[in-house]
Design goal:
The complex is a heterotrimer of chains A (297), B (238) and C (388). Chain A has 297 residues and is mostly helical. Chain A is built from 12 helices and 2 strands; from the N terminus they run ααααββαααααααα. Chain A has helices at 4-35, 42-58, 63-89, 94-115, 144-166, 168-178, 180-185, 190-215, 220-225, 227-236, 242-259, 272-287, and strands at residues 134-137, 140-143. Chain A starts with a helix and ends in a 10-residue tail after the last helix. Chain B is built from 9 helices and 10 strands. Chain B has a 6-stranded mixed β-sheet, sandwiched between helices. A 4-stranded antiparallel β-sheet of chain B has the order 2-1-4-5, with helices on one face. In chain B, α3 crosses α4. Chain C is 66% helix and 0% strand. Chain C has helices spanning 51-74, 77-103, 110-127, 132-154, 159-180, 211-234, 236-246, 248-253, 258-284, 294-307, 312-332, 337-352, 358-379. Classes of the chains: A mainly alpha (297), B alpha/beta (238), C mainly alpha (388).
Chain lengths: 297, 238, 388
Amino acid sequence: MPSWQDFQPFLVVGLALGGVYALSGVGMIVLYRATGVLNLAFGAIGAMGALIAWQLINGGINEWLAYVVCVAFSAVLTLVYGVVFGPPLAARDPLVKAAATLGLALILLGAMDLLWTSNGGAVRSLTLATDSSTFTVSQIQINWTQVIALALGVVITVVTGAWLRYTKLGTAMRAVANDRQITATLGVPVRRVEAAAWLGCGVLSGLAGLLLADLVALDATTLTWLVISSLAAAVIARLRSIAVTLVAGIVIGVVESMLVPINSLTNYADMTPFVLAGVALLVVMFRRREITVSRGA
Amino acid sequence: MIEVSNLTVRFGGVVSLDGVDLRFEQGVCGLIGPNGAGKTTFFNVLSGFVTPSAGGVHAFGEDLLAMASFRRARWGLRRTFQTEQAIEELSVFENVAMVHEHSKLPSASRRREVLESISFVGLAADPSAKVGSLGARDRRLVEVARTVVGKPRLVLLDEPAAGLPDDETEHLSSVIRQIPEHTGALVILVDHDMGLVSHVCGVTAVLDFGKQIALGPTAEVLRDKRVIDAYLGTEEVA
Amino acid sequence: MGIGEGGHGGQAPGAGQVAGVEEARDAGQALRPSSEGAARGPVFAISRVRPETWVRVAAVTAVLAFALFAVPVILSLYYVDAMTQVAIYSIVALGLGVLVGRVGLYSLGQAAVLALGAWTAARLLFATSLPFPVVLLAAGAITMVLGTVIGLPALRLSGLYLALITLMLAGAITVVLSTVNFPNGGHGFLGYNGNLIHIPPIRRPSLAGSDAAYYRYAVVVAALMFLLVLWHVRTRPGRAWAAIRQSEPAALAAGINTTRYKLWAWALASFVTGVAGGLLAGSAHFLYSIDFPIQNSITLLAVVLVAGAFSLWGAIVAGLLLQLLPALFQNWGVSSDWITILFGVGVLQVLTTAPRGLADQVPKDLRRLGRLLSGATRRAAPSRTGTT
């Protein structure tokens, strides 16, 4: 059993990862509540943004500009998808809407593999500018990327919560999430509210893409399916509470990372999000007593 | 005979049913009230889709709430829904036979009983025709046929005449009127068509804001001032 | 090139909007008279067979015969191998089709179930000398039991949550598999020995050792699985599933124990997928966990949606898309990434316009085309007295 000293760096990494899971989860939940779409392409969009940033940096562009391009790209792509595919699927089951985003994910995966082929063995990596600034806290070395990751997770959760509660657009979004039709009759520009949700989700996916590319790996497939870990956090929050998402995301990140130094459990560390989400769902199941009656019945 | 005592249903902060007491003896009984009064919630409690926060339902001497929702059909609970629920890709015969089958009734008499129900409701369509190919009126009749097949004890009809033109409502009302005599079941009818309700129902209960505000012979209930106020909505301006 | 192997069931030209009525393969099964004014025959018993059914049966038999006898002769070994995979994945698509198309349950983890079946079969093939068919059945049964155990609590969740839990499970299984590895002839429960230098290949059935023979074996097994599913669809579970898919509350109100029937669909899908896993083990010689990434489950769902989850033909189309298309592309030197993109586009197209997929849409389009053409020919021949 490793000592506390050995765990410390993993704790730091875990907190950073957890922050990213949290901010991704929040992005997905806000979009889900506003539009009914669980954006399973969240990871793929961010991955493509990160690859574009990498490409630009490699081509000599200023890295901060590249980061902005990444976030902007992710935001625009998500918005375009939402505007084009949101309306025709608006009346369908959430399951169908989520399945449609899988279509987008596959398109992006194929495109990424084509544009940035993974053969030839060349491993790409994205090192954010903030990686190089480090500091030490009681003998643990922390770099600014990790701090930003955790901070963003917390900040975004808090800010989003406040924004939803106190601003006009945020309140409108809560209303739309509650009941789209009634809200429309109240004169709320539902389409614009939904567009805002799509855009916000896109921005977060760009940020998450950058951070995960740095913290984990700049690999299209890995980054795309890392969305499942963020999804786990959102599932634990019943696709509802962003506060719970924050806590869940961080717990997942920390537990996952802290298992790594334990020799017998290293290989199972990756299972953490799935196990935790599974347990949470079991709890949900045992609480449920009502069956949803179909509309109009 | 069905007896409902102190039935209460709360969804979050909303009280859908507020201590509803009522008792229907037999025949066709109406359940009316303005929109949002709790009528469909009431049916959903009877069907087992909603668990009440308080109260009980006893029908024909048995505690309905103690049964799992799908078992109530076997017991004899039948129901139609506001939206069409007949299965489009199956035939008329199969739709009606399904209820008979899942009520665990003997298969020997199934064919005869199913065809009987189909003719009882006056459905002229070919029993092997797919429901998807039928018009609204025939689909509604298929649903009614599903409620009378086998040994129904309690038949819940949720706005069966909605969207039907007058002459078809006529036909439907005469079918509904005959259900208690034909099957021995008690029928509860929810509808907004007061003509239909007064034509068909011997007694009627009225719900408003989840409370029972009237119960008695239909003609009297429809003249009751409280009922009229509930529909028109009296506002006390302070 | 053959259009596929065993598998049948067809699309009846229904009264327009309802597609996918399967006709039985032979008169020994209960038949459903079509809606086109057939006589009022009893539905739940054997009735007389309509001429349309015989044509259908003949067509399916012809396809099956072609697949079994002509394909291995016409195609090179490379493609025969691909067709074996087509057969295997058609079975998986069949199972997923039952879940998605018939009951409305989305599973985002069927590739993991396939891996479970393959693992079980490989373990049994190494550890015992049970005959291959018995191993297939055992793999199917064990996978079915595991699926049922998971399904029991999971099926009470609503659609989206259920899909997510299958995704979580698939993720967990993938991780476990990469740790535990596939059996390679080692000892112990896991049957894996990391130090083995000469790994024995997974054995095949005694009469189907060669690739061509194994292909035929796979086709026959696939045909049996299709029959099994067809039998379910045509009888009580199929009708109950139709009711559940239309509206769960109404199904409950009709007395259907929806949990039981959903579980039944789940068990059936797990069983056939487990059997497919067994076939996969035999076909592959060696199995590696890297061959079962989580993306496969997603692609599987995507392709099943595109090909048509409701109809049995759709499962065959899905198998072709999943395994023949990549083989073709690889042979032609085109990157298979284009296929991934194609599937993504397909999913978007299908979900926004043709909810029942290619297998439903293409026959409809062909029929529409046929009607257009016959209309055009009628107009182009004014010499007819127009009383037809």
